[in-house]
Amino acid sequence: MKHKHTLGPTCRAVLKLLEQKHSYAHDSTWFVQNTPDVLVLEAGQLYAAFRRHGEFSVDVVDALSRLFTALDRDMYLEVGVPDNIWRHFLPASFAVGVVNGEDRGSAKFKDMFIGDHLGYDVENCRMFLAPFPKNGSWVVYTWDFLCREVGVMDLAMQNTTITQSQWTHDDTMQALHTTLFECIDNFFRGWEHAPLSWTYVHHIMLGAR
Question: Which of 4, 43, 123, 124 makes the best surface tag, with the fewest CB within 10 Å?
Fold first, then answer.
């Protein structure tokens, strides 16, 4: 999944170190997290992701999802309002697992919604985000529980038409939406939201190109 980006000086320094490690110690461990399950990233994986025109793997995006979750949690804890956390970052392995037909009732899926590692009650969030690799790029599917909208943000669909985006994404959106509410039924009691009467929103005008 290729991307373009501009690197700052700190990022360039880290990338240079990764490049050195990649050349002779690409399997050296750079990232380890044991909760909710073991996620290990090696120098070669990080170099492949963050070099120019690099490709993000599912494991790298899962690590980023955990990072964003921790940043949100710590920010709200610092100001004393942990119940104000309003968005929940699902890992890329959620959407990939759905498409691959994995067991929605498994401990792997449960850990995406419940557990002390999250540090907040997911049912209080009003926005869910799920990254997914599609057609050689990464897209993000969103659930707005206030507006009852399922959205998709796909840079490859910018300056196209809603019809084109629908052809590309509606089947995946439906599968993820159905599974999300299966998980809600499996892991929660008394969730006030139902899967019916949601609108699909295709964001094809995200801003400057």
Answer: 4
